[in-house]
Amino acid sequence: VLNNSLHHCIGFIMFDYTLETDEELSTSQLAQLYTCKIHAAWDVPPHSSGQTAKVKIQLDSDGNVFSIDIQSNSQEMQDSIRQAIFKSAPYPTPSELKIIYITFTAK
Fold first, then answer.
1. CB of 23 closer than 8 Å to CB of 51
2. Cβ atoms of 105 and 51 closer than 8 Å
3. pLDDT by position in tens, the chain (length 107)
4. What angle do the packed helices 27-41 and 75-88 form, to 10 degrees?
5. How much is the pTM?
């Protein structure tokens, strides 16, 4: 059962894309799901605390990663985020959600 836990990553980390619910996830719920899964797979680089990266992910019609644009001054941040994105693929994708924007902040 999916409920307000969408606002928290707990419960989504092990999500296997098999939904047994009467309703489809909304676009914002899917975006939250993608963000949680990628963050769960992200190995934050050492000594990167406080660094940020803005990410644009484009998906194909099957939910596979088509392109990734990462804006960060740190190559290590870029590499670790790219690895987490591919590790989390494929993504369930309704026709209206093909581009995902996420901001990462190392803590």
1. no
2. yes
3. 333 333 445 444 444 344 444 456 677 778 888 888 899 999 999 999 999 999 999 988 888 899 999 999 999 999 999 999 999 988 876 666 688 888 999 98
4. 120
5. 0.76
